Amino acid sequence: MCGIVGYIGQNMDTDHFLLSGLEKLEYRGYDSAGIALLNDEGIHVFKEKGRISDLRKTVHTSIPATQGIGQTRWATHGAPNRVNAHPHQSQSGRFTLVHNGVIENYESLYENYLKDIPLTSDTDTEIIVQLVDLFVHEGLEVSAALLKVLNLLKGSYAIAMIDKQDADKIYICKNKSPLLVGLGDGTFNVFGSDALPMIHVTKTFVQLLDEEMVIVERKQVTIKNLKGETVLRDSFQMDLDLDDIQKGTYAHYMLKEIDEQPFIVRKIIQEYQNTGSGFEVQSDIVEAVSTCDRIYIIACGTSYHAGLIGKQYLENWAQVPVEVHIASEFSYNTPLLARKSLFIFISQSGETADSRAVLKKVKQLGYPALTITNVVGSTLSREADYSLFLHAGPEIAVASTKAYTAQITVLAILAAVTADHKSIPLSFDLLHELGVVANAMELICDRKPEMQQLAREYLHDYRNAFFIGRHIDYYVVLEGALKLKEISYIQAEGFAGGELKHGTIALIETDTPVIALTTQSNTNLGIRSNMKEVAARGAKVCTIAMEGLDKPDDQLIIPSVHEHLTPLLAVIPLQIISYYAALEKGCDIDKPRNLAKSVTVE
Ligand code: M6R
After folding, report:
1. Per the structure, how many domains does the chain have?
2. What are 165-214's pLDDT values in tens digits?
3. Looking at the structure, do residues 252 and 298 belong to the same domain, yes or no?
4. 486 CB near ligand 1 (under 6 Å)
5. Ligand 1 close to Cβ of residue 398 (< 6 A)
6. For atom 12 of ligand 1, which residue has the closest CA?
7. How much is the pLDDT for 74?
8. Is the CB of 481 under 6 A from ligand 1?
9. Could you tell which of 298, 304, 352 is best to mutate to test the pocket of ligand 1, judged by most ligand atoms within 8 Å of the CB?
10. Hey, is 430 helix, strand or coil?
11. What digits encode the pLDDT tens for the residues 510-557?
12. Domain CATH code at residue 210
């Protein structure tokens, strides 16, 4: 959600760095974009509604400059148009600023300080830059003025600000919204909302914490807290491969990421395998999971769906009671907590604001927390007591695919290791069975034409679709429905097969598409009855069955894998069918409308 990138150094092609950096941040979701460049002639601001390609047309000719800032905006306050796009400038024109996040008290700040200053946009952001200008005008030095403003702000921010009168510095600030500094070779420094726009120029980063301001110069960076005190922080290395963030020959990141899933399951096996034939997880984490009374899994969207599967493993294998909660609801709807509660936060990005709000609350209550995330150094991983990583490589498509299967794999390993620690025998060899899953995933990924055909036959031209399953398949169809709706805009809902007749079956009419999943021997008969019920009312049923449970008329048979691990495999045809349904409709698959990859506002 919104992305920031910036450069200060000796190279004159800052515009190129900013524009290509913004392209690498596109995946986060945005609806307008802009850059500001500072050179001897002054400040040059370009902004545009729409895509970076539209902004590129506006910039049209290269502007040599050795410092600049850029932003992709996902509108919260004010419509997504050119006026509200960032950067914003102060009334005097001296300061130019980009901002991610939401300033909750912007109206009262305007009333209290800026009433005489006409604003040019509808954004909360403009208040920040006008306030800095005001305080500098009143006599404060720039960093003191900015600190004064930060102390007044309520809400979340990642900010980058240029002072036209000082080409040697860029000021950046962070609270709740992510921001990372990339250290150059002594001739430049860079910063961004994440590492992706910077990894081609550096692998050394400095993480910022909340309520910090950094003065970024060519040769050094100085971190300050909101009292103005200098903070010392070590840098760290991030080993990201440039290939990980390129589409290669794929038309979309989503398809590339779907295909990466077998490889990622194998990678996770490797990362967590011990020297023998089992798995290993950090001993303090295993101890925390083994000794708690109850686990609360907190997550959103796809990560929440992975949590539902994780609950099955932790309860059935490790015999720990688990509740799974949607992060945005947890604060209002906090259950009676067990005395020895453990919280597990599942988040691909590690930055989701709804989850972070719960983590903050949980820490205040004094409960331990474990984050399972894909992003090393992300906020949720830093703020929790323990972290486990997905090792799935950057997930760029907004629609989460490989993170889901990676989350389930890591949760399975955590549950198995905990069971072992508690001397509860597992009736199967997880390491072997995960290997079988990875091979089966490959087979499914190679059968895309069949799924493309199903998408054409069952989803093309339809406005609604239902997904049904029972038991663990029910959780998988929830994810299938989310995939379809978010990228194809077809209204899709997942239901527990047995629940249909309690209301939803009223919506079934001639040719309503119903995708039914059956991978469990104990629910096969039940879900098949539900298929008959909807077919009798005119539905067009597309059955995806696991080998061994299949019937001659089933539309797609997936290879047989261990019954507990079927979600890892069964989700893939649902991802691929959704992909092709969206492709047929000509949707912007990697960047669906209104969505952001990293949802950093509550
Ligand atoms: O980064 P997170 O896993 O915390 O993100 C949670 C959701 O926003 C995310 O899974 C979302 O539902 C995806 N777009 C689904 O494809």
Report:
1. 3
2. 999 999 999 998 889 999 999 999 999 998 889 999 999 999 898 999 99
3. yes
4. yes
5. yes
6. 301
7. 87
8. no
9. 352
10. helix
11. 999 999 999 999 999 999 999 999 999 999 999 999 999 999 999 999
12. 3.60.20.10
* Residue 142 and residue 216 share a domain: yes
Residues with Cβ < 8 Å from 148, sequence gap 6 or more?
A: 131, 135, 140
Residues assigned a catalytic role: 2, 597
For atom 2 of ligand 1, the residue with the nearest CA is 347
Q: Is there a domain that residue 596 lies in?
A: no
29, 185, 395 from 597: Cα distances, Å: 6, 31, 9
Co-location of 301 and 186 in the same domain:
no
Ligand 1: centre distance to CA 40 (Å): 43
- Whether omega for the bond prior to residue 87 falls within 30 degrees of 0, making it cis, is yes
Please choose from 252, 297, 303 the residue to mutate so as to test ligand 1's pocket, defined by most ligand atoms within 8 A of CB.
Answer: 303
Structural domain containing residue 476: 447-589
- Ligand 1 in contact with 298 (CB < 6 A)? no
122 and 208 share a domain? yes
Domain membership of residue 63 (yes or no) is yes
Ligand 1: centre distance to CA 300 (Å): 6
What tens digit of pLDDT does each residue of 356-408 get?
A: 999 999 999 999 999 999 998 888 998 999 999 999 999 999 999 999 999 99
375 neighbors 387 (Cβ within 8 angstroms): no
pLDDT tens for each residue of 118-145: 899 989 999 999 999 999 999 999 999 9
First to last CA, the chain: 11
In this structure, what CATH number is given to the domain that contains residue 285?
3.40.50.10490
Amino acid at the residue 321: P
Q: How confident is the model at residue 30 (pLDDT cuts 50, 70, 90)?
A: confident
Provide CB contacts within 8 A for 369, sequence distance 6+: 342, 343, 344, 345, 359, 362, 363, 383, 384, 385, 386
CA 314 to chain CA centroid, nearest Å: 24
Out of 218, 240, 262, pick the residue that ends a domain.
Answer: 240
Distance CA 523, CA 542 (A): 17
Instruction: Give the predicted TM-score (pTM) of the model.
Output: 0.83
Final residue belonging to a domain, choices 186, 212, 240: 240
380 CA: nearest ligand 1 atom: 4
* Structure confidence by residue, pLDDT tens digits, 566-591: 999 999 999 999 999 999 999 999 98
* Judgement on whether residues 358 and 486 belong to the same structural domain of the protein: no
Which residue bears the tokens 């069952």?
458
pLDDT at residue 316 greater than cutoff 90: yes
**CB distance 300 to ligand 1 below 6 Å:** yes
Residue 260 lies in a domain: yes
Residue 434 sits in the same domain as residue 460:
no
Q: Is residue 599 part of a domain?
A: no
Whether 384 is in the pocket of ligand 1, judged by its Cβ within 6 Å, is: no
Question: Residues 328, 287: one domain?
Answer: yes
Same domain, 185 and 219: yes
Model confidence pLDDT, tens digit, residues 230-277:
999 999 988 777 777 788 889 999 999 999 999 999 999 999 999 877
Could you tell me the distance, in angstroms and rounded to a whole number, from the CA of residue 405 to the centre of ligand 1? Answer: 13
The ligand 1 atom nearest the CA atom of 596: 14
Note the pLDDT tens digit of each residue in 231-243. 999 999 887 777 7
Tokens coding 6: 């910036």
pLDDT value of residue 284: 97
Ligand 1 in contact with 301 (CB < 6 A)? yes
* Ligand 1 pocket check for 358: Cβ under 6 Å: no
- Give 28 Cα–ligand 1 centroid separation in angstroms: 11
